């Protein structure tokens, strides 16, 4: 299994560039950053971890822009992949976002993976004029439209939420296919959506019974006529046992995502170095 780190970015502590450099030096495969454009003060949406409107961390309201963050990381690294855990594509203009991601992939030498969410914070989605009951449809259309812009010389798209006529848009991504990993709670509806529209699944921090869910995703994948196997990434919330790691590897997990502490830059760098050594990466 590969190993990545996720930095819950904010306007304090270590910068994404410094964390990415430390992670690459320590042998990690991927760096992830999150996205929230804003957090409405008055909300009805329950956080999936707390179960109510309470936020578990004040960094939710202090999150840096993910694509700017990853661009700074790209400038000081050469190998580590650049990803999100998770981005919220439907909260941006799809044509502009396609340009941003294509530019980052171009400038980084083809290192971008999109970790995308449907959006648990429906109040946040509302401010972006995204109907909560149509968020999966909106994300599907965004991905289809962006892929058209990335792969076609003259791209056009006509959908319910995205529509544009024949257009030129360069640069194209270096990668022939920019991978999309969906971060969401594991269930039949999500797995069917992933099998139809994405390249893999990223677990939530509170996910349980991962081997059974991976098997269900693989069944949905086969039923959709997809070749190969889905990319499965486990977001680590608690220290896994050696048995957990062996079981996940056997069932088809492809990458582990480890969090870093909300501490000073020096402390985070030291943590990343030690953790890379514990995992045998460096």
Describe what you observe in this structure.
The structure is a single chain. The chain has 282 residues and is an alpha/beta fold. The protein has nine helices and ten strands. It has helices at residues 16-26, 66-75, 94-108, 122-127, 135-151, 188-197, 210-223, 242-251, 265-278; strands at 2-6, 30-33, 81-84, 114-116, 155-158, 163-167, 180-183, 200-202, 231-235, 255-259. It has an eight-stranded parallel sheet with strand order 3-2-1-10-9-8-7-4, with helices on one face. A two-stranded antiparallel sheet has the order 5-6. α1 crosses α2 (66-75). It is globular, with a radius of gyration of 18 Å. The relative contact order is 0.17.
What is the rounded distance between the termini? 15 Å
β-strand percent reads 5-15%
> Strand sequence of the main sheet, in spatial order?
3-2-1-10-9-8-7-4
Tell the overall outline. globular
Give the low-pLDDT segments.
none
Question: Share of helix among residues?
Answer: 25-40%
């Amino acid at each position: 299994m590969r190993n990545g780190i996720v930095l819950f970015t904010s306007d304090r502590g270590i910068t994404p560039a410094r964390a990415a450099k430390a992670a690459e030096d320590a042998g990690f495969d991927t760096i992830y950053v999150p996205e929230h454009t804003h957090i409405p003060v008055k909300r009805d949406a329950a956080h999936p971890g707390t179960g109510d409107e309470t936020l578990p961390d004040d960094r939710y309201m202090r999150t840096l822009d993910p694509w700017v963050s990853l661009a700074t990381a790209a400038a000081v690294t050469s190998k580590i992949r650049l990803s999100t855990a998770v981005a919220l594509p439907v909260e941006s203009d799809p044509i502009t976002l396609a340009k941003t991601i294509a530019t980052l992939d171009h400038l980084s030498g083809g290192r971008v993976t999109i970790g995308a969410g449907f959006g648990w914070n429906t109040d946040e989605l509302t401010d972006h004029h995204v109907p909560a009951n149509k968020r999966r449809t909106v994300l599907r259309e965004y991905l289809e439209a962006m892929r058209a812009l990335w792969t076609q010389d003259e791209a056009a798209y006509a959908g319910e939420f995205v529509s544009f006529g024949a257009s030129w848009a360069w640069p194209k991504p270096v990668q022939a296919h920019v991978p999309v990993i969906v971060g969401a709670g594991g269930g039949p509806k999500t797995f069917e959506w992933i099998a139809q529209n994405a390249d893999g699944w990223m677990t939530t921090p509170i996910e349980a019974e991962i081997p059974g869910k991976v098997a269900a995703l693989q069944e949905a994948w086969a039923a959709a006529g997809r070749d190969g196997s889905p990319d499965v990434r486990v977001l680590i919330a608690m220290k896994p046992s050696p048995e957990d790691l062996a079981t996940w590897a056997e069932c088809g997990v492809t990458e582990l995502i480890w969090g870093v502490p909300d501490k000073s830059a020096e402390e985070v760098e030291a943590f990343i170095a030690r953790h890379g050594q514990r995992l045998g990466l460096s």
